[in-house]
Amino acid sequence: MSIDLGTEFMKVAVVLPGKPMGIALTPDSRRKTPTAVGFKNNERLFGSNAINLASKNPEYVFQSIPSLLGKSIDHPMVKLFQERHPYHNLSYDATSGQLFFTRKDGVVFSVDELVAMLLEYAHNYAELYAGSIIKTCVLTVPSHFGQAERRRLIRVSELAGLNVLQIINDNSAVALNFGLLRFKSFNETPQYYMFFDIGSMSTTATLAGQLKLLV
């Protein structure tokens, strides 16, 4: 399976024997799901169900949390998150290098825990869609993710019971997919393509060069 873990949404794809890669549908038959975790009466809610809860109890719903992974309290991305979600009490523990949410009822969650819950949710519905056990995955991350964020993501994936085969930049994944689907149109003349990724937190432009037939 592969997980495209975006700031606001995530998508999951699976590869089944003898079949091309396909997008795993969520339990509510959606191709993508919000990266949100909510809590209501000791029940965990994910995706759209969590977003629905946010309209009434926003302090019990944690959205866009992948953007906080592996970052300190003074990181610009964390500052932006606090501006957009002022109702959350966010703190940082320098010893563990983790950010923590403290709800108004005193319950504490680390960002690592919440992202692990999201990955576990993605793992579960991918297995439901595939009808088989899945143990390995590939993760795509923003190209600006540094080594701290990538190492933390691997650790969080292990908490979710996933074995990460590879972490790949999302812009590289787009270029690779483009090349695989259109390789028959390439010839010995190098071709150049630009890809734009307009996300909820940032926009990136990627130039892929010298795409040519090597056979």
Automatic annotation (TrEMBL):
The keyword Chaperone applies. It holds the Pfam family HSP70. The keyword Nucleotide-binding applies. GO terms for molecular function: ATP binding; ATP-dependent protein folding chaperone. One of its GO terms (cellular component) is endoplasmic reticulum chaperone complex. One of its GO terms (biological process) is endoplasmic reticulum unfolded protein response. It comes from the Eukaryota. Keywords: ATP-binding, Chaperone, Nucleotide-binding. PANTHER family: HSC70CB, ISOFORM G-RELATED, HYPOXIA UP-REGULATED PROTEIN 1. Belongs to the heat shock protein 70 family. This is Hypoxia up-regulated protein 1. It comes from Schistosoma mattheei.
